[in-house]
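Moderator note: this is an archived Q&A kept for reference. The question asked for a predicted structure of one protein chain; the sequence and the answer are reproduced below.
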Amino acid sequence: MACAMGIVRFIMFGFNLICALLGLAMLVVGIIFQLNISDITESIPDEYSTISYIPILMIVVGSIVFVIAFFGCCGAVKESTCMLTTYAVILLIILVIQVAFGTLAFLQTKNTDDLRTQFGVVFQRLMEKYNSAPPQSHEAVDLIQQSLKCCGTTGPHSWVGILSLPPDSCCAGPKGTCNNFQDFFFQGCKDALFDFTRDTIKIIGIIFISIAAVELVGAIFALCLSSSIKNSHRRGAYA
């Protein structure tokens, strides 16, 4: 029995090490996506604003998983049933939160036609304010077009009636060298924004599922080890 418990402790320590590394990876990926998504926040429709919170959730959950995994390692080494049980419960709570937000994100992007249309509506409004609004709108449109290599809502001709030619941020070559519509990015920003959001959520979803699976296994091993330690103490008391 002591040998079996030692094996469980070793496995528990290994899983916590994996959890710590995955938590750190989740934190890094969350920061990367947050930096990218914060650049296009203005183009996200209000009814889909939950999407912009997903990277923040990744940062928070990744930090918590990293810290909790450290305590899980300590609990396994010290054979503390209290620490192990608390660790398992916290992991299960985090797992439920991840599944809930993952499901919410999936539902937000399920109606792809509506989401694509809403991106087009919001970006068109930003374009129409390009000359009259404060520089922030200028910067948002230029940043989206440069980062996603797109132009206008559905293409360069979307700028007709707003500007004589699309802005330099649409230019497929060096700035100032684009003199006709063939020189600008062909893809519209409506589709580019939708593709970027969909791909981002897909990657985040895969990360969430991977970490949730490891968390579930870690929680099971923690509860098993805690139960084994309690039984060992109980047998020792009767010996």
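Archived answer notes: The mean pLDDT is 77.
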